[in-house]
Amino acid sequence: MAILRKRCLFTEASDSEQEQGNTPPPICSLRKVPQFRHDSESDVNNTRFESPGKRMRRVHNVASDPVPASHIAPAAASTLRIPPELILAVLQYADPAEIAGLRLLSSGIKKDIDTYLLHHTVQRVELIGYLGPKKDRLLERLASEDYWGFALLVEREGDEDDEPGNGLFIRATNWKLVLMNFFREERALKSLMEETKEDEYTYNHLEDSLRHIRRKRFRSKLDKNHPEDCRTIWKIDHMSTLWNKHTYFLLEGAYRKMELAERYAVRTLMLLRKEASMPNRKRDALNKIVAERAAMRKGLQQVDQLFKNWQEHLLALPYLSLERLHLDEDFDSNPLTWSKRVIYRELDSLTRWKRQKPVIEPIASVLDAANAAATLDEAAFDDDGSEYDF
Which backbone phi and psi does 92 adopt, to 5 degrees? Predict the structure, then answer.
């Protein structure tokens, strides 16, 4: 409902300055008249009016007079705000996908994120260089353990001299932009997963989302007016479909290189994300399985070697190894790549090994003693009381 307010109307009238005898009559005088019929003439005439010149002189005098300290409004810096230490302590446990949105809450939080949070985060960041998949021509001959120790290179602080003969050193100065781009990509990934949570998928929800964003970012950097980029865009449009969509045309032959490159890249991203999101308790449990499995294999190798020596010294038979080592040729030494079936299989093997270890240890002692007796000089058996006399 609109509220009616009075608007001052001015017409010719006598000015207050005209009452002074020394002042000349004004060129134009002002008088206020009632605006509405219910306004009385007495209320209007009791109001004091000033000429424009006198009003300007009064405003100038008020501006030049000192203002009491009690009338001064508090400065913006004195207003209450959350300490940066508290904001940093809270944001350490926040989802990286929410960081970019939290910057929009206030200018103070934006400043703390762009300074304290980024500086604290960059100290915990690891730069990982991916050399290629296991099936690469230069890496396919490496064992599984050697491959995982060489395929992912982690940038760490060192004392190497910055000389041409020691390698290539690159100083990254735009680290703030790298972190902010990471937060933006996490926000885009989370938004896409929320939009497609009811949709079907080809691989799984996270992998389809990663492939979709990767193709979108890759395609946005291509020039449609360039012939080579046009061919690349055509290949992207005819790659394996996502979200369980069907197509009648797929890349074949030499065009499959782009498909394989995406497969290896997404697998590496999935592996690194799994490692980063895994709690320390689960990571320690996997490392414990790896350590116990290595101890089990070492014990089996010792018993196997004792059995081989016993065959050689006493039975003169060829090696009949208790362990078939070629079964582990396709075994991945990185526990992060294990599926649940592989984890349960290894746990079952370790359980049986621990149960049979009290029986295997005496067998190893007997084989060790038999090998020691077999290596003695023949003269040591002259008075052994043998029933065979040649």
Answer: -65, -30
Per-residue pLDDT band for 121 (boundaries 50, 70, 90) equals confident
Closest CA to 177 of 165, 185, 167: 185
Q: Backbone phi, then psi, for 152, in 5-degree steps?
A: -110, 110
CB 133 within 8 Å of CB 269: no
| Domains in the chain: boundaries | 10-54, 84-155, 196-277, 280-375
Contact 180, 113 (CB under 8 A): no
DSSP state of 248: S
Instruction: Report the predicted TM-score, pTM, of the whole model to 2 decimal places.
Output: 0.62
Give the 3-state secondary structure of 264-325: HHHHHHHHHHHHHHCCHHHHHHHHHHHHHHHHHHHHHHHHHHHHHHHHHHHHCCCCCCCCCH
| Residue 319 and residue 311 in contact, taking contact as beta carbons nearer than 8 Å | yes
Length of the chain: 390
pLDDT digits (tens, 9 = 90+) for 235-261: 888 888 898 887 766 666 666 788 888
Q: What are the tokens at 63?
A: 């501006």
Neighbours of 179 (CB within 10 A): 19
Indicate whether 15 pLDDT > 60: no
Report, as an integer, the average pLDDT of 316-338: 63
- Burial class of residue 336 (count of CB atoms within 10 Å of its CB; 0-12, 13-18, 19+): middle
The pLDDT tens digits of the residues spanning 272-305 come to: 888 888 888 998 999 899 899 889 888 888 888 8
- What single-letter DSSP state applies at residue 184? H
Instruction: Tokens 């790298």: give the residue.
Output: 178
E strand spans, 8-167: 10-11, 31-32, 128-130, 152-154
Q: Which residues pair with 130 in a beta bridge?
A: 152
Other C-beta atoms closer than 10 Å to the C-beta of 371 total 19
